[in-house]
Amino acid sequence: MDTYNFDNVNEELEAFEAMTEDEACKIYNVDYKEEARQYIIDYWIFNS
Q1: How far is it, in rounded angstroms, from Cα 16 to Cα 21?
Q2: Domains of the chain: which residue ranges?
Q3: Which end of the chain is more exposed for a tag (fewer CB within 10 A), N or C?
Q4: How far apart are CA 14 and CA 23, in angstroms?
Q5: For residues 33 and 10, what is the distance between their CA atoms, to the nearest angstrom?
Q6: In the predicted model, what is the mean pLDDT of residues 29-35?
Q7: pLDDT value at residue 39
C-alpha cells in the first residue's frame, strides 16, 4: 500500500487533484472523489 506524507494541505490537495476518481476513493475510503476533498480539508482544519 502506498503511504502519503504531506507537509501541508496544499501539497495534499495537489496530489489529490492528480488522482483519478477510483484512486481517491480507494486511498481515502470514500464513495466519491468530492467526499475525499472534504475529508482532506476537514482533516487539516481540525488537526493543524
Answers
A1: 10
A2: 9-46
A3: N
A4: 14
A5: 17
A6: 97
A7: 94
